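So, does this match?
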Amino acid sequence: MKREERVAPLKEQEVGVKDSNLGQLPSLVWESLPIKLGRYSVLVALILGLLFSLIQVGIDFRNERQSIDIAIQQHLATLEKSAAEASYQLDVPQGQRVLEGLFVFPSVYRAEIIDDFGDVLVQETRGEPAASPRFITRFLLGEQSFRQIDLVFEQDLPVGIMRIWLDLDLLTENFRTRVWFIVFSGILRNLFLAAVLAVMFHLLLARPLVRAVARLREPLAKGEVCDPPPNDHSPIIHRKGNTEILTTGLVDIPRANTSDELGQLLSAINEFILGREQAMQALKDSEERYRSLIESQTDLVCRFAPEGALIFVNEVYCQFFNQSKEELIGVKWQSLLLDHDAIEEKLSQLSPANPMVIIENRVSSIRGDIHWVQFANSGFFDCEGNLLEIQSVGRDITERKQFEEALRESEEKYRTIFENAVEGFYQSTRAGRFISVNPALAKIFNYASPQEIIENISDIANQLYADPGDRDRYQQILEQTNIVENFEFEARRKDGSLIWVSDSARIYRDEQGEIIRYDGIVTDITERKKLENQLLQSQKMDALGTLAGGIAHEFNNILGVIQGQSHVLLKQLPENSAEKQKIAIISQAGERATDLVKQILTFSRMDELQHSVQEIPALLKESLKMIRATLPATIEIQQNIAMDCPPILADPTQIHQIIMNLCTNAFHAMEKDGGVLRVSLQHEQYEKWHVSWPDLEPGSYLKLTVQDSGCGIPDDIKAHIFDPFFTTKEVGKGTGIGLSVVHSIVSQHGGAIMVESQVADSSNRSDGVGGDPHSGGSTFHIYFPAVQETIMEEKIAEKEPLTDGMGKIMVVDDEPFLAGTQKITLEEFGYEVTVFHDGLHALAAFQEKPDQFDLVFTDYTLPQLTGDKLSQEFLRIRPDLPIILTTGYNPDISEEKAKALGIRAFMMKPIDNDELVRTIQKLLEK
């Protein structure tokens, strides 16, 4: 086609456009950019004007209201004193003058003063306000026009009140005028600015844009259309007069002058046209690259008709089926794939609304191997929705399928472990709901199945935790460290019972760090906790024993002084004197205290138990006297003690402990309602074998019976009452070791114990609560073997009387009073005594004159140098030196250890003075 033929239609078309635009001129003007900008500017100006005006009104409102309130308060303050004085003196004229002073404010139309009796002293009215304040007045000051001030005379004496009524409309009259002025002036100002902006936009931007568009259309209007340039539409730049012309292949476009914004705009338009041409070329190149890509990629690519005939296949597709393109084109894909019926069913679902389906299918390769291939099938439709062809891209997913199968097997193994584990596995949300649990967890919390615990537990903190605060601490640790190990807490089971569990868990988060779930393992540690509590109780008892031993050690020193001085005084005082009788009483009390210390040491396991011939009746009566002082008056003690009972071989401390423990248990059983405690002791002959005591030999026994009328022992716990730490008492009232200690002591003494009990009837009590509280009770029978006649006939040899002695004795003790008592005692028997209060001074004196002393009597616990080490130093200098070592209690020394060190004698505090003198005489004789 020639240039002229191509130009003419363009001119006609351009003219037609111009003619049609003439008829639409008003619409074009209204839709022009300056008019649009003007419309939006006016709208924005109105909004901004109103906004700024409201801000200004708000500022003025605050200032106006403050000025009104300040003025009224100041004027009321100036008149307050005069009004108070008028009210106090009931001076009506003065009150009228005060009210006239209030009418200086035009807004005040009524005022009155009321005295302290509530009567109106004076009242003035000037005019009446409007029936209802205007809207802006109500907005500013509200509906209340009433003001009141309390009148106080001298020394804060209330004498009445003063009230004023204000005309609110009058107060806000000037302010309303300013409000309207501010609003209208702000709107007019912004409208003016909007008009200026519209004109400036038209002059500086819109009109140059119109000229730029005309300049751009000028080559087309003139028909300056050139033929496409050679070399694949490459742009050519040439000059036409003073203007550079850009030839793109479709039209010659003048080059823009980029010295201003409009030139830059025209340059951008030129670049857009050039870019479009380049994009068309790039699209063509892309199509070529796409074809090359399809041919070179490793996926199986094909296109086929709706009925299945192949239209296109790539090289990989041909290699997979070991056929050429010519052999495959026209062949139906159904003959190449397995399970094609299922594939056809899914392909039938293709539609314009659902143009793609993904199908995974088994395919046989050229080697006969079965591969899994994932086909992405895309349908192409015409404008009426008819399917034209299908493109399929297949990828070998055999490895993925194998991995999925391995994963499925792994999950099955995990599920087996999860379901059959002994520990409780769970997954839960942060809010406290279970996602999944295994049967072991449901069993721990006494639920029938995992589904039941998931459905019933909606708040783990409040439903499973005995203390919800433990849940907060658990979450705090878990969310700070992402893992928690062996978190122990007390949990509540379905039936309400409490157990101890240990929880180990970790957090799983998403990519943003948000918590997805908690995964954890729960273990029931109730039995372990019980053992820990038992160990703790045992440790407490050991600590108590250590404390008792320490007290006994200190008390021994005190008793040594008391006993020693008593013996000295008893020797010095004349017979049958009142003073000697008093000292004898002190000495007897000291002896009883000495026995008590021995009991304390025995209880704390710090002294070896020594079974000796004991008269139980006297011991039993003495124990009951002590128990009577500790029991309330509601409990009666009845005794039936046979005084002719034979003695037994026993430790008195342990017998006392048996009685105390049994009576204490009886007291707890009768503590609420009172009752009778019966204690009896009888001599019985046991001849027949009894199933309860298979190891008890026939013979003579003392039968001790302790019976109470308390609540009784239920059958289900009777078998456990002798178990260590088993108790039914509440916390703080029992340790659970009392009866176990009784059982142990009885066994050590070769005896036996039997329990009979009946639970109290609570069905017919007269007080309306239940039956007779004394209808039950428990009875403990204890059998002790009596002493054989040969032992009873043994007589203790009479002790020889003490005589005076001779010799120099060193006494070493850090207790001055005790050492002084020992010095006085020994000097009474003719010995020369030197006292030292620490080991170093004693050793120094001995090293200076080792032959000066005939015997050393030293305490074990000494400052700077202990008694055993001091004795070793003495024996190193004089191996033949007799030494007596004494101690109240110390686990580091015993009689065997002392003898192994070469010490001749070992004595426990408190020391009997006569025994000490006999020991010294015996050692000096040797």
